[in-house]
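Final report, results section. Input specification for complex C-07:
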Amino acid sequence: MDFISREDLSFLLHDWLNVSALTEREAFGEHSRDTFDAVLDLAADLARDTFAPHYKSADANEPRLVDGKVETLPAIAEALATYAEMGFFASSFPEEVGGMQLPSVVSSAAFAHFCAANLATAAYPMLTAGNARVLVEFGNQAQIDTWAKPQVEGRYFGTMCLSEPQAGSSLADIRTKAVPEGSDDFGDRYRIKGNKMWISGGDQQISENIVHLVLSKAPDENGVQQPGIKGISLFVVPKILPDGTRNDVAVAGLNHKMGYRGTVNCLLNFGEGEGAIGWRIGQPGQGLALMFQMMNEARIMVGLGAAAMAYRGFTQSLEYARERPQGRPLGQKDPNSPMTAIVEHADVKRMVLSQKAIAEGAMALVLYSASLVDEIKTGADAATRARAEALLGLLTPITKSWPSEFGLVANDHAIQIHGGYGYTREYDVEQIYRDNRLNPIHEGTYGIQGMDFLGRKVMGDKGAALAILGEEIAKTTARAAAVPALAKMAADLTGYFNDGCAAITELQGRADPARLMDNAGQALSAFGHIVTAWLWLEQALTAHDLDDSRARLRDGKLATCRFFFEVELPKVSHQLHLLRSANDAAAAVSSDLF
Amino acid sequence: MDFISREDLSFLLHDWLNVSALTEREAFGEHSRDTFDAVLDLAADLARDTFAPHYKSADANEPRLVDGKVETLPAIAEALATYAEMGFFASSFPEEVGGMQLPSVVSSAAFAHFCAANLATAAYPMLTAGNARVLVEFGNQAQIDTWAKPQVEGRYFGTMCLSEPQAGSSLADIRTKAVPEGSDDFGDRYRIKGNKMWISGGDQQISENIVHLVLSKAPDENGVQQPGIKGISLFVVPKILPDGTRNDVAVAGLNHKMGYRGTVNCLLNFGEGEGAIGWRIGQPGQGLALMFQMMNEARIMVGLGAAAMAYRGFTQSLEYARERPQGRPLGQKDPNSPMTAIVEHADVKRMVLSQKAIAEGAMALVLYSASLVDEIKTGADAATRARAEALLGLLTPITKSWPSEFGLVANDHAIQIHGGYGYTREYDVEQIYRDNRLNPIHEGTYGIQGMDFLGRKVMGDKGAALAILGEEIAKTTARAAAVPALAKMAADLTGYFNDGCAAITELQGRADPARLMDNAGQALSAFGHIVTAWLWLEQALTAHDLDDSRARLRDGKLATCRFFFEVELPKVSHQLHLLRSANDAAAAVSSDLF
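Structure output:
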């Protein structure tokens, strides 16, 4: 079974986003609709045949630390070998480093199949691609040749090493230190000492080498250690050094997680001996800026993973609901009449449709964001590219958080539809929930995303990016206003978006600057719903034009759009009220009173 | 550490519910405030010392089926032996069967400590008490002496056997059959054959015997098998027969759960051989009615367990938030300034206060319901008792569901506050979530509770019970209207309650009868919030009168009440709108379109 509907992905990519038009651009000129579709089909097949089969066993047999080495389930390595063999590590990379140079929107859609089939196994290539892209964009040629290209081939895997036990979200407080040790063929060389926490893929025996990207305090050009984030640089620290010897990097312990268990997660000690050898990427003090290239990609990928998990739960609980007979329609009093499938019960319908709205809405959101990545790279002119960049910046915290937050709501419904069976490990849905629960935490918690959205992305540029979003929404509502079935939704969306903008303006006029972020989470959640509603209206517009040969898809999209607008979107009103009024019902309470 | 604040329980029981007044009633005349407090303190100590220590190990070492017998962690048996020794199995039973004859509200508060410390271990006495109460109320003397009294002593444990693999919520469709076999000292005897699913405590080696209460189809007085639920009777089926031989009951398999793992959960086969021997309780055809005595108690106990889990997550995440330094106040740009405890961050405050509102609100709801049980049994006159019975009937689906639904919201916050640590099994909060996730499923799913609330409890008596609730709320709002700090909340609550009643009336005027239950879940959730807001206003009124020696408790209650009214209660508006308008955005969609 496909956990993500190929028909729906085709609708999103071709009917809605018209990805074939990208092949008219030079960067994607080697491709065609056929090559896109071939990649998508191959991904779906491979995900089903190699990633899905060890979903449960990788959960039951989590990574173990044996004699200082991490052992993972062999099926994970086997699946990733096939993934590498088929070239998927290379899918989104430029040809000059051995990549397939696919548009981001296509490679993301392909990757969604792998995330849905086995999120924990998919995390290895997700991290590897992000790591290699930092090296390709900011590393010197030797660094690219030595550590990026083998990742594009899938021979080396990558990690990102930011957090420390005492510094999670607060990177200014990291203690890892890098001491300069001259330079060599690979750039400026350092000795690094420190402890890094929450390192996914931090050790394993799957890949030939592991490429760690490490944030560390380091002196500037003048030998001075700058305070806070200005004093942080980025280093490439391979597990195996170019001369074939082991670097001074050791696994200090494994974290035993609620879910996502196939992805090993470690505490790593850098420099228990003389110091791990690392080479600086970019300039001193640029560490956080460079790492955020990887982080921003990772945040979109977190959204993709969460959307994929929502989709899988939807697909599996729908299948269960269609097959499980239980009870009878309201008013049918004859106990000898046949039972109906539970999908016909109103409460189950509500939970199925809610999942469909979340899963397909989140997938649309993530793919739209991925299409902005392509626009930033290959847009027609500088203005177009700058506009896409501003919009993606604004949407990144939403793309990370909305699927993470509501994907769990969807997964909760998937469990509930299964009843007692959904609570057992004999079925998949409880694991889907557990796997997905990481997504609101890693790569910046929900609270961090809220402050990024409201503080940096909305207020930071005085609403410029928000204005661009407004223009894009207005294009959609103008088209929808001309379609009788969609006109009311268009008006509603305009109203909610304008309310959201007004709420932010009122907040800025009302609140003490130190208290502007008190309801940042409400802003993130409200605009997440508004953006998702917008993309549902986009889907409805596209679906509306489909002919009767695709009536099931068309009418399903229209019904789900209506559901989202009537049942979900109005929740925004109360959130915006809290935001607008600078509600301090929580923030004003002294913590002594808890 | 106490997972539930003794200070808060004392506030709820003494300051608010004034339980000492119960000792003026004949039934509780042997007790005093001192004996109540001694029981509560003993429960808190015992829960901490014997239930809490094996919380994690019972999760990691779940029950196993070895040679047809179920093995559980020895620490569970040890804890329950101490629990029995201290008389807790007997706490809520009348003296004539060896009970302590405590008020339900006091024994429930004591039991909350055990649920918080280890919900899965607490499930054994919870089921045992419910089972014994059915026997005490409906069994004959021989049945009481043989199977109820040893449960009151904690020597035998009890189960409830309702569901079958093909019949979960739909009990009319059970297939288990009982064939009459004359009568003996224990009553009318039958041979029973069938398979029962989801049997918590279905087998174990902890107790001397296991008393199964089994729903089964059985012929009526005239030997005719009535169709549907009219043909169902209730049977007591002991694992070990009175003559010391094994009954024909076998474990067919264990369910491996997401959480709640210390409670063994089985598929039981009754009558693989000649048929299990069982004795009928009550009259033929009364099965469901009698079992619902146990079920109604179990539903309140589910709410209690969910409230206790919410409370534990609140307590533990608050402790973590107070101790974990991370980041700095907004506007503090000096990276060398000390980090603040995360409890000071606005987003963490919101999650802590939300948990406090849910945990203490749910505990108030459950204890209020338990106080109605006492009122039904010992109220001054028949009218008082009938009124309490109607009110408890109305509140039971809310008491079961609201703590279950929002306890998970609270637990989700508890994980989020812990960040990455909260996602690991090294901390407790992910397990608390997993344990608690069962509560919206068992003893009637959320969807079933919604239909029970709106269909049976509100519409079934033409609003009579709802009117009683309205009168009780009006008493509270009249008092609160006289307190300036609470007057606006009183007006808000009145408004929401009236809106809720009006929504139901409008729905009945508008909707096709077959579609009346389409938004039953919205009704349940909305009235859950309204009832919880009412009980928060009750708590605020009580707290408002406390003097400065209890300022921390007083001001914390007032702040949390304000939070609930400003942040939570307004969500009801949209739910009532969906209800009132008979929204069919989900129900009208053909399931083919999913």
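Residues 446-588 of chain A form one domain. The longest strand of chain A covers residues 187-200. This concludes the modelling results for the funded period.
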